């Protein structure tokens, strides 16, 4: 049996915030000692002090977490810079953690190192892999590939890339008593528990497919032999296209990201345009392969809420029992899309899963999950790196 609790704090002092949030979470366990602790927090805090405050309450429990670009709790998205702590307990729950150095060893090797540590500890008992990579230090899709090289290409992988309050400067990862940057941290779960994953973005393709004719990792240089920016210029004109050069994740990109067609799948992977250089090359939040078919995508608040509800329904169906804990990894672009109405999306999820179920999560710089949340049909479980997508993990 899994028992969980969630606590939050917006105290100005990092240590005090960690203590307050952890105490509130532990109280919900009703005297049971926590085994696993998730921590998601703003970079406004002194990170080491924050983590020390959490661990002063949670004791010997394993702690894993990440800095974020907005925190989500059972009460919904938190309005102020905050910390959210989720604690889990259960005798049948087996837990192992790992870490890889993205900045030093490269993203793929880091993913392999993190996954190997978990695999060596839990062996064939490993059922689920949760990761939090630093994508400012290296290609997040490569980190996922590294994990798959160790665990297998169809193993269930879920998670979210660390944030830093929309600054895109430096993110942090937490593992037990250590705060690092430029790494990937992970936790593997084994034992007698069930899980379900819901994954949706709600963006629809417009126009005709085009081909990426020149790309390097996350940088699209040319589409159909022309500067990549022409994809936007053709639809919106020079003035709107220029806005992509002036601000990170301009509103145009939030509403009209790039969709990458996945072979043998009806779903598109979403890629956020982050910047445009003087040559018209677009740098995205994750890689876009050369030769890929891409389309401009159209998004809306109503569509995003509808698919968030669909993702929750899928996660609930896959779980098959009453959820005892919910983790949400939600793209920062969706938060920007909703603005002050961000709580509507979380409420839509809770209307399916239950408003009283302990829930924790954060707004990310990219999400990791199987396409369509498929985990039951092993051959179709296809973990990928996503953008502008909501990922819901239910545990029970």
Topology:
Blueprint: E1 3-9, H1 14-27, E2 36-41, H2 47-58, E3 62-67, E4 71-73, E5 76-77, E6 83-89, E7 93-101, H3 102-105, H4 107-122, E8 126-133, H5 140-151, E9 157-160, E10 173-175, E11 178-180, E12 183-191, E13 195-200, E14 204-216, E15 219-223, E16 226-227, H6 230-246, H7 251-255, E17 258-261, E18 268-271, E19 273-276, E20 282-284, E21 293-298, H8 301-319, E22 325-331, H9 332-338, H10 342-353, E23 359-364, E24 367-370, E25 383-386, E26 390-395
Parallel strand pairs: 2-3, 8-9, 22-23
Antiparallel strand pairs: 1-6, 2-6, 3-10, 4-5, 4-23, 7-12, 8-12, 9-24, 10-11, 13-26, 14-15, 14-21, 15-16, 15-20, 17-18, 17-21, 19-20, 22-26, 24-25
Task: Tell me what the structure shows.
The protein has 396 residues and is an alpha+beta fold. It folds into two domains: 3-200 and 304-395, no CATH class; 204-298, no CATH class. It is built from ten helices and 26 strands. Strands 14, 15, 16, 17, 18, 19, 20 and 21 form an eight-stranded antiparallel sheet that branches. It has a six-stranded mixed sheet with strand order 1-6-2-3-10-11. Helix 1 runs parallel beside helix 2, helix 4 runs parallel beside helix 5 and helix 8 runs parallel beside helix 10 (342-353). The longest helix is centred in the C-terminal third of the chain and has 19 residues, at 301-319.
């Amino acid at each position: 049996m899994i028992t969980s609790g969630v606590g939050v704090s917006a105290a100005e002092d990092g240590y005090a915030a960690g203590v307050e949030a952890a105490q509130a979470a532990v109280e919900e366990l009703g005297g049971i000692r926590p085994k696993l602790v998730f921590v998601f927090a703003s970079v406004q805090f002194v990170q080491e002090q924050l983590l020390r405050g959490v661990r002063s309450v949670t004791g010997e429990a394993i702690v894993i977490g990440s800095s974020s670009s907005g925190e989500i709790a059972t009460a919904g998205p938190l309005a102020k810079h905050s910390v959210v702590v989720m604690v889990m307990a259960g005798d049948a729950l087996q837990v192992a953690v790992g870490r890889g150095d993205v900045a030093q060893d490269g993203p793929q090797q880091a993913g392999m190192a993190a996954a190997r540590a978990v695999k060596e500890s839990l062996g064939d008992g490993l059922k689920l892999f949760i990761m939090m990579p630093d994508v400012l230090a290296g290609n997040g899709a490569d980190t996922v590939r590294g994990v798959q090289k160790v665990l297998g290409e169809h193993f269930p992988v879920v998670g979210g890339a660390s944030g830093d309050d929309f600054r895109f400067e430096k993110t942090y990862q937490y593992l037990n008593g250590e705060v690092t940057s430029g790494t990937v941290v992970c936790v593997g779960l084994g034992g007698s528990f069930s899980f379900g994953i819901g994954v949706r973005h709600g963006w629809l393709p417009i126009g005709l497919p085009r081909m990426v004719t020149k790309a390097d990792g996350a940088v699209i240089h040319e589409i159909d032999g022309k500067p990549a920016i022409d994809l936007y210029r053709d639809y919106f004109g020079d003035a709107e296209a220029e806005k992509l050069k002036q601000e990170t994740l301009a509103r145009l990109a939030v509403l009209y990201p790039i969709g990458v067609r996945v072979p043998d799948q009806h779903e598109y992977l979403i890629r956020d345009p982050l910047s445009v250089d003087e040559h018209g090359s677009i740098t995205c939040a994750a890689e876009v392969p050369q030769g890929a078919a891409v389309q401009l995508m159209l998004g809306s608040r109503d569509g995003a809420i509808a698919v968030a509800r669909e993702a929750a329904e899928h996660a609930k169906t896959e779980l098959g029992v009453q959820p005892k804990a919910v983790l949400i990894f939600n793209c920062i672009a969706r938060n920007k899309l909703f603005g002050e109405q961000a709580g509507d999306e979380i409420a839509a999820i809770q209307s399916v899963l239950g408003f009283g179920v302990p829930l924790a999560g954060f707004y990310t710089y990219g999400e990791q999950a199987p396409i369509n949340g498929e985990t039951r049909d092993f051959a179709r479980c296809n973990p990928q790196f996503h953008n502008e997508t909501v990922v819901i993990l239910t545990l029970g």
